[in-house]
Amino acid sequence: MNTSVKVGRIRLKNPVIAASGTFGVEYNELVDIESLGAVVAKTITLNAREGNPPPRLVETPAGMLNSIGLENAGLQDFINKKLPAYLKLKVPVIASISAETAGELMELAKRLDKTAVEGIELNLSCPNIRSGTLISQDPKATYEAVRQVKKATEKTVIAKLSPNVTDIRVFAKAAEEGGADAVSLINTFFAMAVDIEKRRPLLGNITGGLSGPPIKPIALKMVWDAFNEVDIPIIGIGGIMTYKDAMEFIICGATAIQVGTANFINPQVTVEIIDGIRQYMTRKNINSLKKLIGSLEVR
Amino acid sequence: MNQLKIKISENIRVSGNYFRLKFRSEQLSKTARPGQFIELKVTDGLEPLLRKPLGIHRIISPNMVEVLYEVIGKGTEALSKRSPGEVLDVIGPLGNGFDLGSRVEGPGSRVLVAGGIGAAPLVFLAQKLRPLSAKPPEGTIDHRPSTLGRPLVLIGAKTKDALLCEKEFKDLGCNVSIVTEDGSKGHKGFVTDLLKKVLNTQYSILNTIYTCGPKSMLKAVAHISTKYRTPCQLLLEEYMACGVGVCLGCPIKVKTQYPCLAGRQAILNTQYQYKMVCKDGPVFRADEVIWE
Ligand SMILES: Cc1cc2nc3c(=O)[nH]c(=O)nc-3n(C[C@H](O)[C@H](O)[C@H](O)COP(=O)(O)OP(=O)(O)OC[C@H]3O[C@@H](n4cnc5c(N)ncnc54)[C@H](O)[C@@H]3O)c2cc1C
Ligand SMILES: Cc1cc2nc3c(=O)[nH]c(=O)nc-3n(C[C@H](O)[C@H](O)[C@H](O)COP(=O)(O)O)c2cc1C
Ligand code: FES
């Protein structure tokens, strides 16, 4: 049975990837990290960022909001500490980067180009200084950001799209035209929750991002839309809790999938999803996962 | 840290909204230290989605663990409805426990300050402190009066009905004092008033305060400990998702000191940084916490 897939120049032994910000070497005691297709590291910026004030988390029906605010110790710390710790676990690592200026973005990509990361995921959900919106909400800025990063590195570049747009296809296309090797979608939905007794927001940052099972059907539709729009591989993300969820994404056109929030609920979920996919393939008598990608029957 | 399936042995109401959960786990009872916690998936479904952090209340026997919890929302409510025989998914032990120190203590050297449900994890601490404080080393004669050398426990609650763990602490040989806000039992007022009185009088040579309770109380205890120059360890709470330090969801502000030059003099400059309650805590020193 062949569960391997290719995303750009990255060869994944299976399509299951841990999503940025939801996984870390700390899980090594609880799950066999080596068996994952890959891990996307927490988003880094050139310089350290302290992140948002607490509370940074709140639970919502079947889901959660977070407003971490990209807390990270910066590029150098990633290269010196985080990356070696992952590589020791023998798992392919995809770095995730974010920046407010094109200069910073180029610098990040250039320096990562010389490291052992397999690829770079571009987290576009960061403020765009020029237009005042997010890069991920401006097709031109998306195109430009991808192009800059592609210029600075030979590594596989994945553009991570935000769902906070009217038509995801426009953004998938912009990333493809900018030269992205793949797109991953989706990041979290802008959202908030309120304590009505105190009439105060439940997040220190007032607003945050919704993740988990509630976003899955919307994410699936966005993957399907993107699949019909672009030719580059798509990585499906959003509310994946089981192998069944993962298969829905693959059937709708995802070459690989990422698991985020579910890691918190069950740290072994990624390995269980890999097992589930294998069992599904056996049951369906399908020997190559590639045959299932985008295999949705719509007639 | 392990992910375990545990079978509920007992899950009963103690009083009011307080419940006791007992389960068998040799692994946890052997490895857990006071102040550590577990992350419990209270239902198998999606509601509530996240695991709930609960402190370890007692190790009852080499394989029996007890948690004492207050029903305050969806998760704890769902937990209170689970029955003996049912299986729960648990991750633990998590976090760093209290620093118990290493030497055999002098008289009255530990004060435990408990507010409300904050008494729960302090009982486990008292279990571990007892052999240190109450018994002199093997082969020496205990000259201390029988009441000295035992941890002093100050328990505070709104009313006498909300008082927790008095019997447990007494059974462990602690000296227990009670404070209620309405005066329905023990001293009337705040537990912090009694702490001040204690520090002013009988326990001048104390060496550590251990405390857990509502944030307002912890803040007041921290303030008092600074004023009396008494080392103090706080068990803090924050909303959690992963419980292991990967989501960066449970920060608290702590002081960081780094050397720098002021003119020609080297001084320690104080700034702050976020630390994660789950991984770097949940126990912090009172003098490092920055209160907002
Ligand atoms: C390290 C640690 C140890 C703990 N030990 C114990 C224990 O031994 N016994 C015990 O009863 N509880 C303990 N708690 C608290 C317990 O985790 C919460 O009460 C529980 O998660 C609430 O879940 P819920 O779904 O019932 O409430 P929710 O529906 O999530 O919340 C109900 C209400 O409580 C508030 N709330 C919930 N969690 C927190 C929090 N962490 N900080 C501040 N406010 C909150 C919410 O704002 C809301 O108003 C501990 C917490 C931590 C972090
Ligand atoms: C606590 C938390 C932190 C996250 N941090 C990042 C991040 O640093 N970079 C990023 O690109 N996405 C981040 N995400 C988004 C996830 O990678 C993922 O896109 C999103 O949560 C949807 O997937 P899920 O429903 O499986 O969680 C974060 C999500 C959560 C819940
Ligand atoms: S709960 Fe995830 S870092 Fe503390």
Q: What would you say this structure looks like, in words?
A:
The complex is a heterodimer of chains A (299) and B (292). Chain A is an alpha/beta fold and 299 residues long. Chain A has helices at residues 75-88, 102-113, 139-152, 168-178, 216-227, 243-251, 262-265, 269-283, and strands at residues 5-7, 10-12, 16-18, 38-40, 57-60, 63-66, 93-97, 119-123, 156-161, 182-185, 189-191, 194-195, 200-201, 208-211, 234-237, 256-259. In chain A, the strands form four sheets. Chain A has an eight-stranded parallel beta barrel with strand order 3-4-7-8-9-10-15-16, surrounded by seven helices. In chain A, helix 2 (102-113) runs parallel beside helix 3. Chain B has three domains: 2-94, Translation factors (Elongation Factor Tu (Ef-tu), domain 3, Beta Barrel); 109-235, Nucleotide-binding domain of ferredoxin-NADP reductase (FNR) module (Rossmann fold, 3-Layer(aba) Sandwich); 251-279, no CATH class. A seven-stranded antiparallel sheet of chain B has the order 4-3-7-1-2-6-5. In chain B, strands 11-10-9-8-12-13-16 form a seven-stranded mixed sheet, with helices on both faces. In chain B, strands 14-15 form a two-stranded antiparallel sheet. The model of chain B is unreliable at 141-148 (pLDDT under 50). Classes of the chains: A alpha/beta (299), B alpha/beta (292). Chain A binds chain B through residues 21-24, 26-27, 29-30, 42, 50-51, 53-59, 61-64, 66, 68, 71, 212-213, 241, 261, 263-268, and chain B through 1-3, 41, 46-51, 74-75, 89, 91, 238-252, 273-274, 279, 292. The structure holds flavin-adenine dinucleotide (FAD), flavin mononucleotide and FE2/S2 (inorganic) cluster (FES). Flavin mononucleotide binds next to loops of chain A. Flavin-adenine dinucleotide binds next to strand 4, strand 6, helix 2 and helix 3 of chain B.
